[in-house]
Amino acid sequence: MSRLALPVSAGAAMLVALDGTVLLMAQPGMRRELGCTTAQLQWTSTGYLVAVAALLVLAGRLGDRYGHRRMLLAGVLGFGAASAGIGLAPTVGWVVGLRVAQGVFGALLQPGTLALLRLCCPPERLGRAIAVRTGAIAVAAGAGPLLGGVLVDGFGWRAVFWINVPVAAVLAAMTLGLRPDRAGTDKQRLDPAGAALLAAALAVLVHALSLVPERGWARTSAELAGAAGLFTVLVVHERRAASPVVPRPVAASRPVAASLVLLLTASAGLFGTLFSTTFRLQDTLRVGPSDTALRMLPLTALMVLGAPAAERALRAQGPRRTALAGVALLVAGIAGLAGPGGGGASVPATAVASALLGAGFAAVMVTATGTVVGDAPAGYAGAVGGLKQTAMNTGPTLGIAAAAASGTGTHGSLPVLAALAAVGLLPAAALPAAALPTPAPPAARHAPHDGAAVGGA
Known about the structure:
Pfam families: MFS_1. By secondary structure, the chain is an all-alpha fold.
C-alpha cells in the first residue's frame, strides 16, 4: 500500500479529533476576551457540528466522483485557513462564521480519511490500518484537554487554533505526495434536491439535539418533528430519484446499515456517559479538571491498547462476535459507573469502569469501521465513509441530549445511557459471522493494490 496513505488518514482524523477537545479549553478565555454571551459561545461548537454533520455524505459522494485526494487536500487546506482566521478574529461573530467554515472543510476531509484506507490497503491489511487509525484518534482525544490547557495557559485561547495551521500544512504536503488524483468510478449525476434534503434534515436534527440539554425535549419537540418530516420527504424522494444521494447499493447493504446503527448507539452511550461523569466529578464531588482527566485516563489507554486487540479478535472471531463483546463491555462500563462507588466516588471503581468503556468502544469502532469500509460496494468508499462519520458526529449529540435531559440528573441518566448502548446488540447481531481471512504471506502480496490508491475505487 502507499506508505503515506495511513499517516495521512490517521493524521487528518487526529487533526479533527484534537480540534474538538482543545476547543473546550479555549472557550472560557474566548468569552472573557471577546465579551460574548453563553449562547454565542455555544454556537462556536454548534455551528461547526451542524455544518460538518450536514455535509459529510455529500462530501463522500463528491470524493467518489471527483477523487478523494482532491477532496482531502481541499478540506485540509481550508481547515487550516479557517483556523488561522479564527486566530485573527476580532469578534465572536467572526469566530462563529469561521467555525462554520471549518465544519464545511472538516466535512470535505473526513470521508477521504477512510476512503484512502479502502483504496490503498490490501484487504488483509485493512483491519490493521483501521486499528491504527482508531488508536490515533483515541490518543488525540485523550491528549486534547492537556494540550489545550498548556496552549491556553502559555499563549492564550487563540493558540489552540494557530496550532492547526502547521499541522494542516504538513498534511497537505503529504497528501500531495500520494499518487496523482484521477476521477472516481461513481459516474452517476449528483442529485441536488436529494443532497439539499439530506443536508437540511441532518442540520435540523443535530441543531435540535444540541439544544436539548438547555431547553429539554419538550421545547425542542417541534424542531425534532421538523427533522423527522424532512427525513420522510427525503426517503420518498430517494425512492423515485434516478441518482439518489445515498446510492442504492449502499442503502441495500445490510452490513453497512447495521454498522452505522451500531456506531450511532455506541457513540451515544459513551459520550453521554462521559458528559454525565464529568459533571458528577467536578460539580458534585468537587474534583478538579486535571484530576478528572486522570481518573478517566484508563478509557484512553484501553482504546489505544484495545484497537489492535480488537483487530486480532475480528480476524479470529468475526465481526458479529467481536461487536457483541464490544457492546457488552461498553454496557458493563456504563453500569459500573452507575453502581455503588461509581461515578467517581470510588477511584478504583471508576478506573475499572473507564477501562471497560475504552475496551468496548475500541472493539465496536474497529469492527464497525472495518465492516463499513470493507463491505462498501465498489466505487462508493466515500459515500460509506461519509455515512460512517455522520453516525459518529450525531451519536455524541444524541448521548449528551439523553444525559442532560433524562429528567433524573446527569448521574441518574446512566441507566438510560446503558440501555441506549445496549440497543447496539441488535445491529451487532446482524453483522456477518464469518471471521476475516488471515494476512497473506509477504510473497503473496502484490503491487496492484498500491496502484489503486487515490481518486477512484
